[in-house]
Amino acid sequence: MITRDSIETAYSFLHQKRNVYVHSSLDWQRDDIEYAIASYVDAMSRDLFDEISDGRTDFLRDHQRFEADITAAVERLESMLYPPKNTYKHEEDYDY
To answer: What is the mean pLDDT of residues 82-87?
Structure first.
């Protein structure tokens, strides 16, 4: 089950890291963020990961696609937090 709390926590963490990542010109800083996100993903709710990853096991773990993945993750989490009424495909699964 995906809880609103788990969505909010993931959104806050990924949103913050994404904002630093996209504006950073320091390779070591970007690498540190990728490592931190990969560690976070390893510990996050499997249900939530499955929901935001579109079934990709390498989601948020692929260096070549990381910027696109973290941007997509933030957008998906935001849409889960603020879905248009009755349009989110698993709205009934959330424990609001």
So the answer is: 71
